[in-house]
Specification:
Elements lengths: L38 E3 L13 E4 L5 E4 L9 E6 L17 H10 L7 E6 L6 H8 L8 H20 L4 E5 L2 H14 L8 E5 L6 E3 L22 E3 L3 E3 L18 E3 L12 E2 L4 E2 L24 E3 L4 E8 L2 E8 L16 E2 L2 E2 L14 H24 L1
Helix pairs in contact: 3-4
C-alpha cells in the first residue's frame, strides 16, 4: 500500500482561503452520478475502499499478532464518505479522474468502515492542493469551492433517489470533505424528511461552531453533538493536537469567529467526556508526504508488513480547552519499559519546519479510527431499533 496521502489535506481549513477564492463565471453542471465511473467507491465495483485493512498489533512487550480484516457480507446501513483535499491536479479544481492520491486516502479513511456498512464515496471537483498552495503563497487563483459542494450535493441526491431505499446513513468526512458535509447537513438535510435517515455525522478536521456550554444552535441548528453511543442523528467533530503542544495563537483549528461560540470537540474514545485510551489504526509508513517519515515501530526495528499498525494502550485522547481553543488532546503513553516507539508522526512538516498551528491534522482519523468505526455500528443498531418501534406504532 502506498504512503497515506491524507496528510496533504493540511492545506484546507475552514475559512483558510474562502475569502481569496472566486467562483467561476457561470456554474458548471455537476457530473452524472448515475454513472459508476463518477464514484470513487460504491457497492458493486472493485474500488479503493476494498483495499487491505489488515493491521499488525504490537503490544508493550514487543510481541506481535496480525488482525485480519473482513468486510461485512450483510451491511445493515450505509456510509457516505467525502474525502479531504488530496488532488495533485494542476488546475484550481480537480478533474473527475481518480489518481493515486484519491485512491489511497479512501483506502485509509473509508475502507475500514466496510466492516459494517456499504461505502459510497463520490468523486468531486474539489479545490486542489495546487490552488491552495498557490493561495497560501499569495498568488491569484480561480478556485470554485461552490462547485465542489454542488458536486457532492448532486451525488447525495443521486444516492438518495436510487440507492438508499430507506436505509440509515452515516456521513463521514475529513478536512475539506468535512466542511462540505457540514454544509450539506445545514443546507439540505436539517428540517427535511431526509434527516430521519441520518445515523450520525462524523466530520473531524473541521471547526463546527456551537454556543458555549451547548451542543446545538451554531453551524448546525438541529443536529446536536453526540454524547453516548446511543445517540443518533448527532455529530462527532474535533480537531487534534498533541497534549504537550496546544494550539498556538495563530492556529485556525479549534476556534471559530462567531461571538459566543466555541469549536465543538467530541472525543470518539470517550463520548461522555474525560480521557480514554483510543483504538488507533496508524499507517505503517506514517502520515503522508507532509509528515516526517515513520521510523521503526519497535526497538528491534523489525519490519511491519501490514498496511496498518495497532498499539494497544499507547495513545489516549481527551477533549481540552485552552483559552479560546477547544480540541482533542492526544497523548502518547510510552513507558521506559515499552518496546514500542514513543514517536508517533502526524505533525505537519514543511522542509525542516514543523507547523504547530496545524496540530495533528494528518492523523485526525487514525488516532481514533477504531472508535469511529465501532461507534458507527453501535449507533446504527440504535437507529434501526428506533425505526422498528416507529414502524410498529
Amino acid at each position: 500500500m502506498k504512503s497515506i496521502v491524507l496528510g496533504l489535506s493540511l492545506f484546507v481549513a475552514p475559512g483558510a482561503v474562502a475569502a481569496q477564492t472566486q467562483p467561476a463565471a457561470a456554474p458548471a453542471a455537476s457530473p452524472d452520478y448515475g454513472k459508476p465511473e463518477n464514484w470513487l467507491c460504491r457497492p458493486g465495483k472493485v474500488d479503493p475502499c476494498d483495499a487491505n485493512q489488515d493491521a499488525t498489533i504490537i503490544k508493550a512487550d514487543g510481541s506481535r499478532s496480525t488482525e485480519k480484516f473482513s468486510p461485512t457480507s450483510n451491511p445493515k446501513f450505509d456510509c457516505f464518505y467525502v474525502y479531504p483535499t488530496v488532488s495533485l491536479d494542476r488546475t484550481p479544481n480537480s478533474d473527475m479522474i481518480a489518481g493515486p492520491e484519491e485512491n489511497t486516502v479512501a483506502a485509509a479513511q473509508a475502507g475500514r468502515f466496510a466492516a459494517h456498512c456499504r461505502v459510497f464515496a463520490p468523486l468531486y471537483r474539489q479545490v486542489t492542493l495546487t490552488a491552495l498552495q498557490a493561495l497560501l503563497l499569495g498568488k491569484p487563483v480561480l478556485a470554485d469551492r461552490a462547485m465542489a459542494y454542488r458536486d457532492v450535493k448532486a451525488a447525495w441526491d443521486e444516492y438518495l433517489a436510487y440507492d438508499n431505499h430507506g436505509r440509515g446513513v452515516v456521513l463521514i468526512g475529513h478536512s475539506q470533505g468535512s466542511g462540505i458535509l457540514k454544509q450539506l447537513v445545514a443546507d439540505a438535510i436539517e428540517g427535511t424528511p431526509t434527516q430521519r435517515l441520518i445515523i450520525s455525522v462524523l466530520i473531524p478536521g473541521t471547526n463546527v461552531a456551537v454556543p458555549a456550554g451547548k451542543d446545538v444552535g451554531g453551524d448546525l441548528k438541529a443536529t446536536p453533538l453526540c454524547h453516548t453511543a446511543k445517540d443518533v442523528g448527532c455529530v462527532v467533530s474535533y480537531v487534534s493536537f498533541r497534549a504537550d503542544s496546544p494550539p498556538p495563537e495563530n492556529s485556525r483549528f479549534g476556534v471559530v469567529p462567531q461571538p459566543g461560540m466555541v469549536a465543538a470537540c467530541v472525543n470518539p474514545a470517550a463520548l461522555g467526556g474525560g480521557t480514554a485510551v483510543s483504538d488507533a489504526y496508524l499507517g505503517t509508513r506514517g502520515a503522508g508526504m507532509a509528515s516526517a517519515p515513520m521510523g521503526p515501530w519497535t526497538t528491534d526495528a523489525a519490519a511491519v508488513t501490514t498496511p496498518f499498525v495497532k498499539v494497544p494502550g499507547l495513545i489516549s485522547t481527551a477533549c481540552t480547552t485552552n483559552g479560546k481553543f477547544s480540541y482533542l488532546a492526544v497523548s502518547v503513553n510510552a513507558k521506559p519499559t515499552d518496546k514500542r516507539t514513543p514517536t508517533i508522526v502526524g505533525d505537519v512538516v514543511v522542509g525542516t519546519r514543523m507547523l504547530k498551528d496545524w496540530g495533528l491534522h494528518l492523523v485526525d482519523m487514525p488516532v481514533v479510527m477504531g472508535n469511529l468505526v465501532e461507534l458507527s455500528d453501535a449507533q446504527a443498531k440504535v437507529w434501526a431499533g428506533k425505526q422498528a418501534i416507529s414502524a410498529a406504532q
